[in-house]
């Protein structure tokens, strides 16, 4: 078992990692821990492990780290494990994974898997695999301007604070997109594989990350007051009932020239086409 960990995640997450590793060591589990040193290193490590026949590679981090490791495992028989250390841990909540050291260790030891079907976003910088979502509009603006230090200190609260900042300076342009060949537009767009957003909050009740295709969430209302209202509805799990929200199943989506966020990390800034990954990945769920 190879565990891939980003050491820039912060002291608290490092402590959580070592608590899990202690439990695993006490139960006689053999593992190798490798820390990443640069952007894209997690994908490189996962690719190398898959080529060498490693049976399980564990992404120790948030959804962005999971996506990077999954990208390296794509097309191989190596299983993906998840040690949730991120701010939101959306995919871990989506799959119903445990968060205690004992629960994480037990899941990785037992090794039962489910089939995860990622998406691929192709933009000016090339293809990028994602496991949960890609957004364009207000949430992408928040992610692009969120200071890493603030995120380490405040966690999920950093997104709330940065969101309030962006309601003042973001101009809320309309987002042009094409869904399965039909052109439309919205104030903000989130293309999601799963039901959840921002942690355990419901966005698209009928979505399924274990199946191909996507749910496109289109927010027709735009502006500071709409952003605040949508944010409040999300935290109360009322988002699917909000006026101005359209949910549509889709096979292929094309976004115009807009900033994007991919699994909670800054994405590209240009035309982006979103399709299913060529093949699914086996993810360990316990």
What would you note in describing this structure?
By secondary structure, the chain is an alpha+beta fold. The chain folds into 2 domains: 2-117, Rossmann fold (3-Layer(aba) Sandwich); 121-278, Tumour Suppressor Smad4 (Sandwich), CATH 2.60.200.40. Helices cover 33% and strands 33% of the residues. It is built from 9 helices and 18 strands. It has helices at 11-26, 41-51, 63-73, 90-94, 101-110, 138-145, 148-154, 156-169, 224-235, and strands at residues 2-5, 32-35, 56-61, 79-84, 113-116, 119-123, 126-130, 133-136, 175-179, 182-186, 188-192, 196-197, 201-202, 214-219, 245-250, 253-262, 265-276, 281-284. Helix 7 packs across helix 8 (156-169). The chain starts with a strand and ends with a strand.
Amount of beta strand: 25-35%
By DSSP (H or I, 4+ residues per run), the number of helices equals 9
> Could you give the distance between the termini?
15 Å
Q: What oligomeric state best describes the polypeptide chains here?
A: single chain
The percent range for helix content is 25-40%
User: What's the structural domain tally?
Assistant: 2
Structural class: alpha+beta
Number of extended strands:
18
Q: What's the CATH architecture name of the largest domain?
A: Sandwich
From the structure above, extract its key features.
single chain, alpha+beta, Rossmann fold, 2 domains, 4-stranded parallel beta sheet, 9 helices, globular
Task: Summarize this entry quickly.
By secondary structure, the chain is an alpha+beta fold.
């Amino acid at each position: 078992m190879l565990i891939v960990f980003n050491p820039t995640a912060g002291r608290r997450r490092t402590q959580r990692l070592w608590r899990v590793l202690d439990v695993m060591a006490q139960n006689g589990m053999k593992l190798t821990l490798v820390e990443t040193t640069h952007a894209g290193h997690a994908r490189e490590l996962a690719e190398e492990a898959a080529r060498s026949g490693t049976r399980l590679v564990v992404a120790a981090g948030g959804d962005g780290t999971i996506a990077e490791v999954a990208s390296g495992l794509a097309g191989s028989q190596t299983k993906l494990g998840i040690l949730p250390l991120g701010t939101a841990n959306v995919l871990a909540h989506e799959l119903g994974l445990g968060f205690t050291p004992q629960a994480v260790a037990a899941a990785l030891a037992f090794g039962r898997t489910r089939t995860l079907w990622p998406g691929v976003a192709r933009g000016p910088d090339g293809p990028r695999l994602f496991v949960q979502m890609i957004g364009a509009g207000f949430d992408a603006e928040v992610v692009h301007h969120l200071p890493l230090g603030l995120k380490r200190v405040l966690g999920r609260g950093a997104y709330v604070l940065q969101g309030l900042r962006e309601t003042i300076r973001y101009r809320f342009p309309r987002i042009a997109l094409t869904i399965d060949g039909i052109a439309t537009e919205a104030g903000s767009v989130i293309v999601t594989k799963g039901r959840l957003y921002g942690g355990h909050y419901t966005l698209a009740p009928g979505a399924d990350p274990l199946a191909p295709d996507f749910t496109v969430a289109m927010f027709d209302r735009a502006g500071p007051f709409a952003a605040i209202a949508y944010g409040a509805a999300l935290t109360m799990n009322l988002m699917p009932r909000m006026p101005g929200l359209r949910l549509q199943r889709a096979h292929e989506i094309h976004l115009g020239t807009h900033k994007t966020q991919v699994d909670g990390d800054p994405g590209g800034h240009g035309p982006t086409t979103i399709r299913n990954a060529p093949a699914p990945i086996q993810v360990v769920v316990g």
